[in-house]
Amino acid sequence: MKVKLITGRSLQQGVGKEAGKFSQEYFNNVAICELDPNDMEALNISPGENVMVKTKFGEVVLKAVKSAHSPHKGIIFIPYGPWANLVIDPETHGSGMPNFKGIEAEVFPAKGEKILTLIEVLEKISGGK
Known about the structure:
alpha/beta; six-stranded mixed β-sheet
């Protein structure tokens, strides 16, 4: 399903950050993709199942979460963090800040696919160095 990707801060992301970026709480609050309930139904996915998000910049597997801010059909949200960084444009156009909003993306079920740990994400971003 083609969607627009929005990334940003969330209250839960901030709570997880306070627990530490290597904490389970941070992982549970940031390695997620919030979707409109109608989009979840169209994709035949339930909350807690994994989805793959692909953009022209990369791809990432995340846990599907039913958005509490619906309706917003065709729009997905990923909290700021290392997992979101895998699918956003790294180009900052001299501003020092990449574009975190309105990114063309595709989302589809990823049953059986694993969500990368923070260490695995960092290794992927750094090329394994």
